[in-house]
Every structure is written in structure tokens, then in C-alpha cells.
Amino acid sequence: MAGQNHLLIDGYNVIHQWPDFAVRFKRDPAGTCDQLVEAVRVIHDIDNYRVTTVFDGRGAMVDVQYPGEIRTFAVLYSPSDLSADGLIEQIVKNAKIPGTCTVVSRDNLIAESIRASGGFAIRPEELADWIKRCEGRSRQTITQKQKAVRLAWKESNPWDALDGLK
């Protein structure tokens, strides 16, 4: 979708800023990265943002993965000669509308670079708050749908379908 808001997350930067994740990362780096990706999915699903989590990579080229085969929810690994920060900066600079890009990083240099390109920068703790708000709205939506289903079932008799059978 053209002009869709795009959230770009400096993955390792966020992991090391969130205390629980930083501890887990020492035991299970890959699992912690997966947990971060799953944690931010709610922003994609509830706030309709394109979400890209970027990690420093080791290969010769950018590695792109789409968890769940959802093209608006991606994980990128930068090539070995480019940091995740550098890849994020390139994405924002090359965006058709940089003002639709929000970058999450504690790094002040990348934040300034993003703002200079026309994008927005937020800190990891702001991302954590955003996730909590989205999770709350998600629970609220589910609760409302559950109430509607219970009401619909109360008003109908499942055995009515058997009346026509003899």
C-alpha cells in the first residue's frame, strides 16, 4: 500500500535496551530475536503498520525473510559490509515518503540521520509502550467479539437445524 506507515526496528539495539530480552539474549540469541519479531507483530496487526525488523548480518547481500509469508511484515539481515543502522538509513532515504517511516533505536546518530531524512525516531521504551497499547486494544477487540458470539448463540437454538430432519 503506497504511503503506508513503516516501522523499522534496529533489532539488536532494542534487544539490548530491554532488560528481560538482554538477559535472554545471552542464553539464546536466535530465540530472543524471534521473540522480538513476534512482540512487534501486534503493531502490524492492530495499527496496520508495515513492520521491518533489521539485524546485523553476515552474508554478502541483504537477507529478507517474511514470517508468515506476510509481505508487509519482514525481517532483514544486513550484508556483512553494512550495519543494520546503515541499512535502515538507506531504506528511509530511499522511501517515496520518508515521513511515513518511524525508526526505533537508542542510537542518537541514527535518530538524527532519520530525522534529517524526514522520518521519525523513537526509543526502545516507547516501542514497548506502543506494543502494550496494541495488545490492550487486541484483547478488547477479542473480548467484544466473544460477547457478540455468545449473544448470537443465546438467541439461536442449535437444535433448530434438526427440526427439518425426520
TrEMBL record:
It comes from the Bacteria. The lineage of its organism: Bacteria, Pseudomonadati, Verrucomicrobiota, Opitutia, Puniceicoccales. This is RNA-binding protein. Pfam families: NYN_YacP.
